[in-house]
Amino acid sequence: MPSGNAIWQSAQDMLDLMAELDPLCQAIEAELTRDGQEILIRACTGEDAPQSGPSFPVLVRYFDQLEMRREKPRRRGSLTIGLQMTGSDVGTDWPHGRSAKIVAAYSPRPADWWQLDADTPNSVGEIEGTTPSGPRWEVEDDPAQWFFAVPVDALTGPEAIRRLLVDPLLAMIGGTDGATACAGLEAGICHPPPPAQF
After folding, report:
1. What pLDDT was estimated at residue 38?
2. Collapsing DSSP states into helix, strand and coil, what is residue 86?
3. What is the DSSP letter of 94?
4. Of 133, 75, 129, nearest to 107 (Cα)?
5. How far apart, in Å, are the Cα atoms of 76 and each of 39, 82, 107, 114, 134?
6. Which parts of 109-183 fold into alpha helices (H)?
7. Are 64 and 44 contacting, i.e. CB atoms less than 8 angstroms apart?
8. What SS3 class is residue 31?
9. I want to staple 179 with a disulfide (CB 3.0 to 4.6 A). Which of 28, 36, 95, 134 is the partner?
């Protein structure tokens, strides 16, 4: 069993890491909720909104996709953004398996946020109940629910956040297929392993 001092230091290191990651999370939120976008995204509010924050090993933030009806916003879909610091280590076959990544998960239903954890995805790129489809994973019995991932190392500033994460994400929410939305971005996103590997 680790000593009390070792436990304390490990926890302190984790707190320091989360403080360092917070500016990245804030920058992603700022780009995602920017005014003037065709797809309107806002951070969740209200009594039924889940609590954003750390849920080790993922820092999670929840958003609503809104549409304006008679000048009043109405929920249309749910978006979950998670910074997965590590994942369930079940192998090394997937090149993105042992690196931190941003996972962007969408549901076309209101108040239907994803529960992101160490298995979304695991270290070999698998998540139970999903099928790889181009640059994203789709729920087997409901492909309108999906997620895709971007390596944290690729998100070097606001321009990269918009090009690699926000623009393709909003395009896919708007109905563009994943391959078209992520065209030209192959080196900057975490492609799922091909189905044959599952």
Report:
1. 86
2. coil
3. S
4. 75
5. 10, 20, 9, 15, 25
6. 158-161, 167-173, 178-181
7. yes
8. helix
9. 134
Mention every residue, 6+ apart, whose C-beta is less than 8 A from residue 135: 148, 168, 178, 179, 181, 182, 185, 189, 191, 192
State the alpha helices, DSSP H only, in 48-177.
158-161, 167-173
Quick one: how far is CA 153 from the chain centroid?
A: 14
CA–CA dist 58, 175 (Å, integer): 27
CA proximity to 83, closest of 134, 24, 170 = 24
Three-class DSSP category at 197: helix
Number of Cβ within 10 Å of residue 10's Cβ equals 11
Lookup: tokens for 149: 């991932």
Phi–psi pair at 64, nearest 5 degrees: -105, 140
Question: Which two three-digit tokens encode residue 33?
Answer: 């909720």
Confidence (pTM): 0.89
- Verify cis geometry, omega within 30 degrees of 0, for the bond prior to 57: yes
pLDDT 10s digit of each residue in the chain, 198 long? 778 888 888 878 888 887 888 899 999 999 999 988 888 999 987 666 677 766 678 889 999 999 877 677 788 999 999 999 988 888 878 899 889 999 999 999 998 999 998 888 988 998 989 999 999 999 999 999 999 999 999 999 999 999 999 999 999 999 999 999 999 998 899 999 887 544
Tokens of 85: 């610091």
